[in-house]
Amino acid sequence: MALFPKPAEGSWTQHYPDVGTGPVSYQDCISPEFYEAEREAVFKQAWLNVGRVEDVTDNGRYFTKEIEVANTSLIIVRDLEGQVRAFHNICRHRGNKLVWNEIPSAETSGSCRAFTCKYHAWRYSLDGSLTFVQQEGEFFDLDKADYGLVPVHCDVWAGFIFVNLAKEPPTTLTEFLGSMITDLAGYPFEEMPERYDFSADIDCNWKVFLDAFQEYYHVPSLHTQEATPDARPQMMKGFEAPHYQLDGPHRMVSTSSVPRRLWPANFQYPIEMETRSGLFGPWNEPDLGGEMSGTNPGRIKAWAADNFQIFPNLEILIWASGWYLVYRYWPTSHNTHRFEGTLFFPPAKTASDRAAQECAVVMFKEFALQDAGTLVGTQQGLDALGSSSDFPLNDQELLVRHFHKSIADWVASYQGSGVNV
């Protein structure tokens, strides 16, 4: 018997009939040809989150972003007028990478009033204008106005910086995000600047790892250690989520739980009680004001967290206890990717606050490593089977089903537009 009511159609999956209920192919995770199509149809067409406004807090602050799936490097900068801009990281003279330190492929950040190329000292203002050419008189009819940095479409929503690599994006950022995501605009993201960043290069297709965070069906079996021995029998009964929602290519799932601080003592590890923190975050919840905009759209009781999956590669997980985390998955080949995870908290006011945050961070890393531990084996299994098998997905895996369909739809639509990919 289900723990939570299902939609009138009988299941969440049937509530969204376009996704179907049949087995799902994972050919999109093993095919080099599909990866090439995905690069053009998805990552060069969709809006991509590359950071937060806290990464460029002051005028002149910048960071670079390597997007290997699109074979490009970007400069994200807040110019001297305060506008956040994005440019291809290329000098217009001879194509040298403009901003880098010791290793050209390594990302970097800093603050400056102009960008100067290491090669021949061409200089650009932070709005992209070419302002200085070494020995300009040696050139032939050179007009500096023709050789500014190549801009990339850039927009900011709720403090999240997005870029779009298309010549003309098919939609504005707001249109792309849709109402389910933009309803979050009033959430106090800006009140949580305390951050902990992680990244890892992983030997599996980016969608394989993303899928691990789109369903909780695996939690009782894979994350057993997150429960104390006394709590495990309860955990092994299985997990269900009370609310799922799809909106265009985006999707979300809500979870319900009694706050961890109210669990019986034998259901908590000593470190949790000592630090008043754990996997679900610090127990001393910050005062974030009234209702948090856009969260808990299903209005479920004992709301614990919302997991928003923003197409194609961004996840924002918002906890009712007053913090959030962001995951990004950047493909580096058809069977490798780079994972980025960042946890955001309100500023710690005491040593206890700091200890609580760091306990949550450590448990997050352990949780993520448990997920990551399956990935290489999954990729090897998918590669071994090739295209000979499809996989059955249950109702709790609705978001997985929808994600792979959305990717396929974008590729098919792009190919159908007559563009050769």
Brief digest:
The protein is of the alpha+beta class and 421 residues long. The chain is built from 10 helices and 19 strands.
Topology summary:
Blueprint: H1 12-15, E1 24-25, H2 32-43, E2 48-52, E3 61-67, E4 72-78, E5 84-88, E6 109-111, E7 115-116, E8 123-124, E9 130-132, E10 151-157, E11 160-164, H3 173-182, E12 194-202, H4 206-212, H5 219-222, H6 232-235, E13 243-247, E14 250-256, H7 270-275, E15 303-310, E16 314-319, E17 323-333, E18 336-345, H8 351-372, H9 375-385, E19 390-391, H10 398-416
Antiparallel strand pairs: 1-19, 2-11, 3-4, 3-6, 4-5, 5-10, 7-8, 8-9, 10-11, 12-18, 13-14, 14-15, 15-16, 16-17, 17-18
Q: Total number of helical segments?
A: 10
Distance between the termini: 47 Å
In spatial order, strands of the major sheet run 2-11-10-5-4-3-6
Q: What does the main sheet amount to? A: 7 strands, antiparallel
Strand content: 25-35%
Which structural class matches the secondary elements? alpha+beta
Q: Give the fraction of residues assigned to helices.
A: 10-25%
Average predicted local confidence, pLDDT: 94
The radius of gyration is: 23 Å
Low-pLDDT sequence parts:
none
Describe it.
- The protein is an alpha+beta fold.
- It contains 10 helices and 19 strands.
- It has helices spanning 12-15, 32-43, 173-182, 206-212, 219-222, 232-235, 270-275, 351-372, 375-385, 398-416, and strands at residues 24-25, 48-52, 61-67, 72-78, 84-88, 109-111, 115-116, 123-124, 130-132, 151-157, 160-164, 194-202, 243-247, 250-256, 303-310, 314-319, 323-333, 336-345, 390-391.
